[in-house]
Amino acid sequence: MVKYVAEPFKIKMVEPLKMTTREEREEKLKAANYNVFGLDSDDVYIDCLTDSGTGAMSDTQWAGMMAGDESYAGARGYRKLMKAVKDIFGYEFGQPVHQGRAAEQVLLPSYLKKGQKCVSNMHFDTTRGHVGLLGAKAIDIVVPEAKDTSTYLPFKGNMDTKRLEAYINEVGADQIGVIIMTITNNSAGGQPVSMENLRTTKAIADKHGIPMIIDAARYAENAHFIREREEGYQDKEIIDIVREMFSYAEAFTMSAKKDAIVNMGGLIGVKDSEELYIKVKGLTIPYEGFVTYGGLAGRDLEALSIGLYEGLDKDYLKYRVGQIEYLGGRLKELGVPFQYPVGGHAVFLDAKALLPHIPYYQFPGQALACELYLEAGIRACDIGSYLLDLDPETGEQLESEMEFTRLAIPRRVYTQAHFDVIAEALKNIKERASEIKGYEITWQAPVLRHFTAKLKPIE
Ligand code: F0G
């Protein structure tokens, strides 16, 4: 029996959920053209579409919201946030922005010129998008084990440092604008990056004179994994692990909607370069607003400063990552295939293994997402061939290496019983897996089609 780590909080406010019948869900899904992004959230029972901006704030954060100073310039919340940036990350300068992609828009022009490469363990989609908008090319050099979904390895999010060296030697260091370490590695399933890997990557970057920065969306979950899994860190405080992690970079971008547990917010950190900080301020003003609010309300700055600390609490992190591990453990008992070990924020179901009769061009990850909704009102999303657009040159459907259905878990929102509902639903789906049909697309947009495409089941 897998053990659930009990919540280190009690519940003071509740948000009622609507219960629906299978017949109602069949109607709703059809009306949404079998695209889970088209569902009204009111018709979803357990929403695992994303862990981004979907967390529950604490009473202390809500109290901070009331105390927020809404001054246009020099607000109290800004000073508090800057103090937190110095204390937690050891960085001299901070810049609030409205979310993670805004941090990318503001920071990346300082590093990338047209024609250059941007190297990462794995770029998140929006990061890849901003690299492309600057006329640069995003190159992922994750360790090959990231693609092995069944063997236990502690740090599947790592940069492949041998291939990184080889790549730098091949293209030339001056062609690489920046190295971005994404921690945890979202696109590889929320897999962590080890301290050793950060240290080695930084040494390689330094040797070749390439700057290194961090995409810090899930930095606290990463620190938790280092504490649990990497030798020498068991007795360290999470905050000290975080300080060491960030010592290997010169700047970071952060979507604060994840580990800082706010519904909206982002952050840039600059370690000590005043020159870089001046450039950051220069782009923040036209894109995001004056430097002391950066696209956020004063109350948001307060909630963010508090959330940054709450996200580092070791009992909270044990519970948080424990929830994902509990769901993974239940699925293992039931023989439902998923990427193992689970990451910090999501369970990636292996739809290819569960629905081997559905070919990639009939979207097994999407079929499983639809089935989860029909079975129990659970919303997940495809991370597989459906997520890929058509080949821009040939117009053919591309085949993804993996066919995943992602169950991303909001922070401090669901309880053990909700996870049991998810496990039970997957058990039932597994029993009738061979009857589940694939889907075809009846309409699609030319780019990022998965948000708006219309589908229908194949009879
Ligand atoms: N970097 C990483 C690693 C992310 O996971 C995300 C967002 C971003 C940057 C962009 O941040 O959404 O605040 O602009 N990930 C969300 C997800 C959307 O569902 O994984 P944002």
Describe this structure in a few short sentences.
The protein is α/β, with parallel strands linked by helices and 459 residues long. It contains 15 helices and 14 strands.
Strand and helix map with partners:
Elements: H1 22-31, E1 46-47, H2 59-66, H3 76-89, E2 93-97, H4 100-107, E3 117-120, H5 125-133, E4 137-140, H6 161-171, E5 176-182, H7 195-208, E6 212-215, H8 219-229, H9 238-247, E7 251-255, E8 266-270, H10 274-287, H11 298-310, H12 314-334, E9 346-350, H13 351-354, H14 364-376, E10 378-379, E11 381-383, E12 404-408, H15 416-431, E13 439-443, E14 454-457
Parallel strand pairs: 1-10, 3-4, 3-5, 5-6, 6-7
Antiparallel strand pairs: 2-8, 7-8, 9-12, 11-12, 13-14
Please describe what this structure looks like.
The protein is an alpha/beta fold. It folds into two domains: about 20-50 and about 315-455, Alpha-Beta Complex (Aspartate Aminotransferase, domain 1); about 60-310, Type I PLP-dependent aspartate aminotransferase-like (Major domain) (Aspartate Aminotransferase, domain 2). The chain has 15 helices and 14 strands. It has helices spanning about 20-30, 60-65, 75-90, 100-105, 125-135, 160-170, 195-210, 220-230, 240-245, 275-285, 300-310, 315-335, 350-355, 365-375, 415-430, and strands at about 45, 95, 115-120, 135-140, 175-180, 210-215, 250-255, 265-270, 345-350, 380, 380-385, 405-410, 440-445, 455. The protein has a seven-stranded mixed sheet, with helices on both faces. It has a three-stranded antiparallel sheet with strand order 9-12-11. It has a two-stranded parallel ribbon with strand order 1-10. Strand 5 (about 175-180), helix 7 and strand 6 form a beta-alpha-beta unit. Helix 4 crosses helix 10 (about 275-285) and helix 14 packs across helix 15 (about 415-430). The longest helix is centred in the C-terminal third of the chain and has 21 residues, at about 315-335. The chain starts with about 20 loop residues before the first helix and ends with a strand. The mean pLDDT is about 95. The site of ligand F0G has 16 residues, from helix 4 and helix 5.
